[in-house]
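Entry type: protein chain
Record version: 2
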Amino acid sequence: MANPTACILIIGNEVLSGRTRDANIQFLATELGELGIPVREVRVIPDDPLTIIGTVNETRRKFTHVFTTGGIGPTHDDITSECIARAFSVPWEPHPVAWKRMADFYAAQNPPSIFNEARQRMATMPRGCVLIENEATIAPGFSMENVHVMAGVPRIMQAMFRALAPKLERGEAIVSATVHADGVFEGGIAAALAGVQLAHPNLDIGSYPYFRPMPVRGGVALVAKGTDAEDVALAADEIEALLIEAGGKPVRGEPVTD
C-alpha cells in the first residue's frame, strides 16, 4: 500500500519578499518523512484570499495531508483561517473552546489583559474544525479535514506539529543513507549513479555537491532514500563502490562544510 503524501503551503508576503527566511520546510519534511508521509510538493504563496483559497482547494484534493504555516495571528494580514473557511464553504465563527480558553487566559493576567478584537481573531475558526493544541502559546491551530493550519513562527509551529503528529495517517518510515567523498564531482560519476538508480527503481537517489575552501575544494554527497531499509543499504554499498572507482575516499554520513 502506498504511503500517504503531504504538501506544505508557506503563506506570507514576508517570505516572498525575502524579509523573512522560512525555517519550517526542513523541520516539517524531516518529521513527516519519519512518519512515512513524504512531502511531494511545497508552495510559497502570498496573503491573497483568492490564491490561498484556490491553492488549498487544489492541494487538499491532490495530497493526503496539507500543512499550512503562517497567517493565523491577530493582525489584518492574518487571513489564513478565514480563507480556509471559505475554501470549505463553512462559516468563520468563534470556536467555543478556543474562545473561552483565550478569554480566561487574558482575564487571568496580572494586571488583566483585554481579550480584544485582534486577539479574538485567533479564536475565530472554520465551523467544524478540530483544534491543534499548542503548548508554546495559548492560541491553537486547527485541522479542517486533511488541511492542518499552523503558525508561521517556528517554535510555535513545532509545538503544534508535535501535538498533531500522533493523529496523522501515516505509512512506512522513510530511511536514508548518505555517502560523501572529497574531490569527486558530479560530472565524473553521473553515468554510474544513473546505473544505481536503475538498479533500485523504488528508491530516490540524489546527488548533492558541496564546496569547501582550497585546497580540498569540495566534493559530492550521494543519498539513497526509501521505505525499504535493506534496499537503501544495498544502494549505499554500490554508491560507496562507485566513489572508490572515481578515485574518492568515501565517508558515510553528511559532509562537514563549515
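Comment: Residues 229-245 form the longest helix (17 residues).
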